[in-house]
Amino acid sequence: MTDEVILRVKDLRTYFKTDEGLVKAVDGVSLELRKGEILGIVGESGSGKSVTNLSIINMIPSPPGEIAGGEVLFRGRDLLKMGAKDIRNVRGNKISMIFQDPMTSLNPFLRISTQMMETIILHQGLGKKAAKEKAIEMLKLAGIPAPEKRIDQYPHQFSGGMRQRVMIAMGLACNPEVLIADEPTSALDVTIQAQILELVEELTARLGTAVILITHSLGVVAGMCDTLCVMYAGRIVERGTTDDIFAEPRHPYTQGLIRSVPRLDVAAADRLPSIKGQPPNVIDLPECCPFYPRCESAMEICKRSYPDSADFGSGHRVSCWLYAKERA
Amino acid sequence: MSDTEALLDVRGLKMHFPFGGGLLGGRRGKIYAVDGVDFSIMKGETLGIVGESGCGKSTTARAVAQLYKPTAGEVLLNGKDLTKLSPARLIEARRGMQMVFQDPYASLNPRMTAGDIIAEPMRIYRRRGILRMSRREIDERIEMLMERVGLSRFFKNRYPHEFSGGQRQRIGIARALALRPELILCDEPVSALDVSIQAQILNLFKDLQAEFGLTYLFIAHDLAVIQYISMRVAVMYLGVIVEISRAADLYREPLHPYTQALLSAAPIPDPEIERRRQRIILTGDVPSPDRARTGCYFYDRCWKRMDKCASSVPRLKETKDGHQVACFLYNDPD
Amino acid sequence: MADTNADKRDSMTNEFDQKMEPVSLWKDAWRRLKKNKMALAGLAIIALYFAATLLAPVLPIYHYEEQVVDHANLPPSLRRAGEVMLETRVAYMRKTMESEGRSEMNEEEKAQVERMKADVASNPVHKRVYVLGTDDLGRDMMARILYGGRISIMIGLIGTITATLVGILLGSIAGYVGGRLDNFIMRFVDVLYGLPYMLVVIIMMAVFGKNVINLFVAIALVSWLTLARVVRGQVISLKHAEFVEAARSMGASPARIVFRHLTPNTLGVIVVFATLLVPDFIMSESFLSFLGLGVSAPLASWGSLVSEGTNTMELYPWQLLVPAIAMTVFLFAMNFLGDGLRDALDPQSKNRT
What is the per-residue pLDDT across C240-272, written as a single tens digit (0 to 9) for each? Predict the structure, then answer.
């Protein structure tokens, strides 16, 4: 991981107009991604982590959603303001995305070769033969046995783990600078998950790709990510290096989350400490810290306004009234 | 505790699903979803079953619940074999055994109110004459159950879509408790929930067990969850149990190579530990249970395999106190 | 104490102290329907039709059977019948005069005109206003289409309800039980589908007589087919849902599962199809009436009115146009409503503002 920042998200806001009200799915998210870094975004349902992803490459279905504000600077250029042709040049080429369910992100009617060659030809301008060779090479790197034969097969002929490998191969085929992985292993068995995560780690290190990894599993981020952003109700409530956050979580939500996950390496406790209440329904959220109904340390001010950010050094920042100075 | 009779005793359970053939041809075959499973659960105990997809854990639960008719084997609840009961007797016996399902969105009828969902088992049994409860008694019980699982009773007339995932699962649990069962089969009840809600529901399960003296068959794919909730754990692979022992023993000293690989692959939320870990990465995919086996089911992926493993099937044998394993590393073939 | 409980019941607040209104699935659908202007217009029109046809006996209109021979074939007008009658007769006379090359009325014609004028002045019946004109027997078109509407709409409704009930019954059973019974029922449906529907109806009417009951039976006999297929499809897709497994695991009987669990969850689809069946029925009936096999005089239906109207459409076009437009508007309205319902009840189309 170097110090060179290649992707900078500034105060991103994505809102959805629904029948029931305004959903501020992402409400002021800022983050920085450095070359070669693996950044984890952790959150539960309604936290806005997936919407953040889609917003970065400007793929929010509109209506009902729209990007209401903010910038996404990739190598200095704002992706949200790019024209259609330019942004298509970025997607799949410089910034690639893989999703949770490979069955729905692969076209079941097309052979793998067709789908992979499509991106390669489009972005790298290679001829058909060269593109196919590149695709086979990627499949081999991704650990698919007999790739020359399997490349002509259809998605349903692959198992879940294999399909995810195909997705990774496709995602990295054009040697992108950023790979966004949205819950890539949540649908996989634990032994396959281990294989896939190891593959992602190895390939991205080799190719120098930076990764944004979105997941709800604290175990996965602990093993994979250099830095971590914890999201709640559309905002990042705590961020920092993975080591810092696990060693000393500051935000009550992060603390509660880490404590409430059962761990294999400790003997089973009698009772699992849990966060009371449930993740908020982010429709028409009032002005407050959205965690206050569930927070053990909630104060009056938490009900009235969203806390400012407090800095703990080496990139560890927390948005919580316990630490932020109250504005006069 | 061990000299009381088992509440649930499963012997030689098999569940085979034929497929294929028919007018359009295609390969004829069988899915050996459950291929000879034996275990017993004592009253008040929690047996956890853990395994990956295709291992047969969910099918086992449904076969025990008699939602599928087992291809072979016996399921003894309080000494009575459920597979041999007439439909009328089975319904009576079912009262003692209820189920909680995985998907909080699909396991509740979207057109019924929370109260109706919870009351349904009582109403069914009252209509059959097995249960004698007045309308008011049922209403009172609904409210009591809702409060007990942590839902306000004023939500009785709301519909499932108005509740969150965790709340819906609580409704499902209340429904399972309605008839005062002894045994509850839990099929991945927390897998579809958010992490912070999982802990709440797991605590709820433990509290209810203490209060009502419940016995659980708890199925999950997350090892840490199983470790927390279970007293004993069974590890399943391709339709058979490969290892079964007390929870603490299993995690401290896994014997079967598959269990070792599983534990090694499970992520731990601690970056330092993760960095230092030596992972056993299994090669290949989780196979599908579509053919009969002549040797050990784990042979293809086992890095400790021996020649004898290919020709005979290891059976579960007790190796240490309360710790059974099906592996020729510890036992010899018969 | 009791009051606070009642308050709590109706207006729960969530953790942010925001009110949480109970929202049933139907209320949700209604809200979406309201956004669809066409569907609402359709609904309003249908409501109007229902009201008008239901209340026909008490509305201040002329009786639909009453014939006033003098008033035969009068065009729609807001003026008094007497005036209109005079005008049309005189115009007719002028036509005859023209064809005979005269420009002056002869004695006989003048006398006719005088007689009519006298009649108009004295007879109160000529004070009537036929807003939609009259037919060839001097019957008020407005009354005819209102009463005709009663018959047509009734056929539409009763036929639809019957078809729906039969379709639900057979479709659910076929879908849930599966196996041979499913096969049998579906092959039966296939066979009926293959029948030349109109031919069957015509034969039935010819054999069993031409009355309204037989009309119902004949049409209802074949119209449940599509609905049965649709319901069967829904039931098959739902019967493996976890909530059905849950019901089975607590000892629910198959009947309970089908009628308490599966059918209510197919209501959305059923409502949409049923709404679109009503126009089908009305069209079928009108076609039969057109062929002379539908309702017979003195009863009228929109179809029979259209049939009569085609005989005279060159001379008296309103006799065709009035019932045709009345029927067409109703059918459009039902179709818009059906479309709107499909969108409103389809969970996929949520939040597509």
Answer: 888 999 999 888 888 999 988 998 888 888 888
pLDDT band at B333 (very low <50, low <70, confident <90, very high): confident
Structural domain boundaries enclosing C273: 42-61+148-345
The secondary structure of C335-347 as a DSSP string is HHHHHHHHHHH-G
Listing DSSP states for B61-98 in one string gives HHHHTTSS--SEEEEEETTEEGGGS-HHHHHHHHTTEE
Beta strands in chain B (DSSP E): 6-19, 29-42, 46-50, 72-77, 80-81, 97-100, 183-187, 215-220, 232-237, 240-246, 317-320, 323-325
Strand partners, A5: A34
Listed residue (C133, C151, C137, C132) closest to C66, CA to CA: C137
Chain A residues lying within 8 Å of C18, measured CB to CB: 284, 286
Rounded Cα distance between B333 and C70, Å, is 111
pLDDT at C200: 78
Whether C95 is in a domain gets the answer yes
SS3 assignment, position B13: strand
Q: Which of A181-190, A199-208, B277-286 has the lowest mean pLDDT?
A: B277-286
Which of A17, A19, A287 is the best mutation test for C, with the most CBs of C within 10 A?
A19
Tokens of A32: 């920085």
- Tell me which chain A residue has its CA closest to the CA of residue B222: A190
Q: Strands, E, within A142-188: which ranges?
A: 178-182
The DSSP string of B40-51 is EEETT-EEEEE-
Test C264 with B111 for CB contact under 8 angstroms: yes
Helix, strand, or coil (residue C351): coil
Does residue C12 register a pLDDT over 70? Answer: no
Show residues of chain B in contact with C256, CB under 8 Å.
124
- What tens digit of pLDDT does each residue of B45-58 get? 999 999 988 889 99
- Homologous superfamily (CATH) of A5-94+176-323 is P-loop containing nucleotide triphosphate hydrolases (3.40.50.300)
How would you class B279 by CB atoms within 10 Å of its CB: exposed for 0-12, middle for 13-18, buried for 19 or more?
middle
- Model confidence at B123: pLDDT above 90: yes
Chain A contact present for C229, CB below 8 A: no
Name A146's Cβ contacts closer than 8 Å, sequence gap at least 6: none
Which residue of chain A is at minimal alpha-carbon distance from B231?
A268
Q: Return the closest-CA partner of residue B155 out of B85, B94, B108, B195.
A: B108
User: Pick the residue with more confidence: C242 or B23?
Assistant: C242
Q: Write out pLDDT tens, residues C158-175.
A: 888 888 999 999 999 999
Domain range list for chain A: 5-94+176-323, 104-175
Contact A191, B261 (CB under 8 A): yes
Contact (CB, 8 A) for C98 and C154: no
Tell me the β-bridge partners of B98.
B184
Domains held by chain C: number:
2
| Preceding peptide of C76 cis, ω within 30° | no
